[in-house]
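Data availability (excerpt). The following record was deposited with the supplementary files.
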Amino acid sequence: MTIPKLVLSSPADILAAVPYLVGFHPTDSLVVAGVAGPRVRLTTRWDLPVASEDLDLLVALLRREAVAEVFVVGYGPGALVTPAADTVTRLLRAGGIRVAESLRAEGGRYWSYSCDSATCCPAEGTPYDTERSHVAAEAVMHGLVALPDRGSLRRSVQRCAGAAMRQATSRVMADLRAMPEPGGPVTDELAARFVAEGLARVRRAVGLYDAGGRLDDEGAARLGLDLAVVRVRDEAWALIDDRDAHVALWRDLTRRLEPGHVAPAASLLAAAAWHRGECALAGMALERALAADPGYSMAILLRQALAHMMSPAMLRDRMPTPAELDDEMGPARAIWLAPLRALLTRDVPGPASASALRRP
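Predicted structure:
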């Protein structure tokens, strides 16, 4: 993620910025922020203690991102932070990456591993206050959020829908179960109409959230079911860019959709968060996706990319455009609706069977 127009000129500025870089106020954590020119290019975080092998991919990642220097910040007691800070500093210096500052923060005070002067870096630590920092104020002005802790970030992707959303979902599913069975050219035409309408709904939803709006319950339920069709989901994936709308839209659907419907939306939230460098949010979104569907291929792909510390640009640059998706996949076919039909059949309230899909 990049934070425009923020000047980090002191340890206190760095400590004020980190919660906005990772999305929450860290505890028992090691954070490495890579800088390229005047901007923070990427930020990575580990729970402490961290095994040295978990840090081995860091230098390669920073090189891919053209990072020339980094800030290292550890949160917690010295016995927990110092070994990790020493290990990552050694790896970075061996890889030719400059450590501009290395800090430990605990209890409202910080200590600098880069400073050995008792005058500016006393043994008892230096007090700091992120709440009064101009950096925090600028971050908020740019729309960045720092939740109180990691648990708050996790709760921000948990389900929060009520009876009204469940009823809306039931109505939408009842309408969709009236689709004809697959088997002929007429249903290929039906698939083409369904996909075209789904693509339009994706684009309208992104525009709605970009303007500060929100889908009503039936609109959210219908879009969630549209995403069961891979061509529609991939359109949403291909459209992801730096706008806040993508995170806002897919987080909202991740929280509102029925558990059996949530894997595509949660995976799109992960992709949107990862695109912006919000790896903690991406990981939590993937947990939701895989809890709903352990075999969901998009979530598995993104989880592997995060685990191997791939740069978001590596996958983003390989994503086809919507026009290229049309060329690659060709005209819509009835078989494209099979995942949706399976979902509608599986989630029929009460006794479910294939007969719930009416024939024309």
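Summary of structural features: The two ends are 51 Å apart (CA to CA).
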